[in-house]
# Entry
Amino acid sequence: MVEIVYEMLSDREKSLIECCLDRIGNGANRIYIAPFDRVGRSGARLFRVFFCPDKDCYPHIVKIDRKDRIQREYENFQKIQNYLLPETTGAPREPIYESREAEEALGILYFQIVSDSNFDSARTLQLSDIIFDVSNDPDIEKERLDCLRNIFDRLYGICLSRTADTSNNEPTSVLLKDEFEWHISAIKRLNPRKKYGQIVGIEHIDEAMSTCAGANFANPVRLFEEISSGKGIWEEPVIRNLKHVHGDLHCNNIVLNSEKKPVLIDFAWAQLNADILKDFVLLENSIRVVMFPAYVNLDRHKEIDEFLLEEDGPLKARNLLTGDEPLFLHYVRLLEIVEIIRKYARRYGGKGYDWPQYLQSQFITMYRQLAYDTPNSIVGFRTLGMIGNRVKHEHQRS
# Structure
């Protein structure tokens, strides 16, 4: 009889986890479960699980979700797995289902993620746990910032280096409404017009220009509707470097093993031959509008966002900061990390890469991210509007 320690599962979920024992084959008679500190926006549940006869064993991450979503994630991973280094991914094993016939059946994915750890000492960190964990001690903060630099250099220099290899690769002409079809469909399902209407005033939601927190810009809602219909500034084909992408690279989908090395999870949005910039803009967006502290000075943050509309903005914005201002250390980290992300975007962007491409991809992906709940929707909407405004300006200038 298998003993499951930690009562937080339904009987259906317990049954699926017990089925994993047949695959692992280590004679486990006890399963230790700890929450993974996140719930997927699709409703998926994630756990850190130890299948073991005792506590001295390797942990796994287990994901339980609806059968069709589990199947899609597993199939997407199969498409791109040959372009990922095995040690840099939480490679899911073949999923298990309650039933292959029932539409509402649950499925389970599980994969080993952490090395040389045990149940008592191991804590599977997500990048989100440490990204803005600042210290006022200069030596400690330097050590933590160096650690983050190493994580991002490894993430793009090793984890995604095979997928992003641009050798012998010619850019492709695409329509953005086709390239970002998944994002556009997700936005339409979420229908964020009401949310954005509460920010700018529902009576102003269809106006050409919007005003938010001291900034005026082209209405993002109108710009998105032009994207989804392929009209306005979005009707012309654009040049993109198409590679294999993770597709949903944000701070909660990057976990750190016991050596603080990044490991990728959650391949539900993985794609072959997609805009490579997705794996850069999504992560930058995640750090800027989801992970950054919500308690910001609106005027100071607007100044930072204005700098970040330029490709070399992180370097210029650093000269703006003073050591005695609130969130100084947070801004230093933000600018350092954004600079690293953009450095690799330039390297992997391929022939014909230019900055307006990055801003276009950033606008579309940020629109989807902000459609969910974020710590500071007003600041996020203003950032989105400023980016959209620059995209429109760059198009008019060209």
Q: What stands out?
A: The chain has two domains: 3-123, 160-241+276-397. The two ends are 69 Å apart (CA to CA). The longest helix spans residues 138-159.
